[in-house]
Amino acid sequence: MSSDTEKHTPEQVDQAIGGVSIDASVEAYTPEEQKKIIRRVDRRLVTILGLLYMCSLMDRTNVGIAKIAGMSTDLNLVGERYNLIVLVFFIPYVLFQPLATVIIRKTGPRRFLTGITILWGVCMIGFGFVQRWDQMLGLRVILGVFEAGYFPGCVYLLSTWYTRYELQQRNAVFFIIGSMASALSGIAAYGIIQMGGLGHLSGWRWIFIMEGLITCLCGGLGSILIVDFPEQASTSFHFLTAQESSFIVSRIEADRDDAVITPFNLSSYLRNALDPKIWAFALLACCSATNGYAIAYFLPVILNQSLHYSIAKTQCLTAPPYVAAALVMYFSAVFADRHHIRGPIIIFNSCLGLIGLPLLGFEKNNGVRYFGVFLATISAYANVPPILTYQANNIRGQWKRAFCSATLVGSAGIGGIMGSTVFRDQDAPGYRPGIIATIGTNVVTIVVVLILMWRFSVANRRGGVVEGKEGFRYTL
């Protein structure tokens, strides 16, 4: 069976786009009409995927807020129990991801993504009724199983809809919408905590119950609005006409010649693991996730215990750094897509972390330390879209893209395990081992990106066949 990195025959391409040539499918619309179709895809695809990702991030990270709102006392979270509750989520989250991008191809994005969203929403409601810490441990395992398929599924789905130099802006908007969970969860939780006593339930329990209900409602909305792959778009509640669907497919084929999916073959799929750059991208994702999850899970704790802010002030002060990260994320994505660069953006963001983390960890003045929080948060979160796009721009073939998405996000899950353990209670209030560990991940990121940029530039200068396609060039 042929590898999916091989060039598709004209018959395969014509079958995928309704028997119409690539040029004819593109030229059927004026440039203005083409922009309108893409904007319609943006509104329908990026927005709803980002909304459900916001639920995903909020649901997996709200234990940090619940901890300082009384959960720690009620569930007797002494010693390493809180760290275990945070960590155990990532074990099934990593293990179940490799199959996610295979399943999403077989079942379709709409059914798969909305189905697991509703399931983890129901699981979240259950968090509000646990009586022992080990019960929460079990529910975190189940949550990890259900959430495992969402992010790699979204990364893969977005990469099938957009050309290489449109993708980072869409990844950025998707992640910005999702990361608003981190910005809003503290403020929302403060409001929900006021429900404490209602139904004889503590305020921290209502955080899980209400956010679980919101997730279920959003999952139901997604079952109507999420669209399938471009070649199936004309059947997704008549989102696009058959001609418009052909136009989308033909753009991807012209850009990287992999719009047509080959039959699945397990050995060919696993053979993609022999490409070393896939594991370099995975290492970048791991380092980025270590920083991101460390901030998401422990920022409320650090602000409360290390900077000695009140619970109310802590919950409100978690929002501004995420807003700043969103702004940097978007404008750097616009710049990167316009100039066709990825690596320099990642290096710049990592340098911000190398400035912010020492300020947070070693400075004495609280105002300066809080400024360090801004830089550290920007570094961690603004690096996610360029890393996702870096791998998507330099990989060809649908199944190779699926494999790479799974390894990338699976490695991010390993980063989540690391991020959930680097800040330990016994290191309070300075948390210096955690600060040093996250500084180290930024150094590793810079080194790996420099190596990739060097290798890609050498391959581009040599020319010829790159990634199985004549004329294809790596994005630096």
Structural features:
476 residues; mainly alpha; Growth Hormone, Chain: A; two-stranded antiparallel ribbon; 22 helices; globular
Textual characterization of the structure:
The longest helix is centred in the N-terminal third of the chain and has 31 residues. Helix 18 runs antiparallel to helix 22. The protein has a two-stranded antiparallel sheet with strand order 1-2. The protein is 74% helix and 1% strand. The chain has one domain: Growth Hormone, Chain: A (Up-down Bundle), CATH 1.20.1250. The two termini are 32 Å apart. With 476 residues, the protein is mainly α. The protein is built from 22 helices and 2 strands.
Overall body shape: globular
Strand content: under 5%
Largest sheet: 2 strands, antiparallel
Averaged pLDDT: 84
Rg on CA atoms, Å = 22 Å
Query: Which residues sit in consecutive blocks of at least 5 with pLDDT less than 50?
Result: 1-14
Please report the number of helical segments: 22
Helix content: over 70%
- Report the end-to-end length measured between terminal Cα atoms: 32 Å
CATH class category name: Mainly Alpha
Strand order in the largest sheet:
1-2
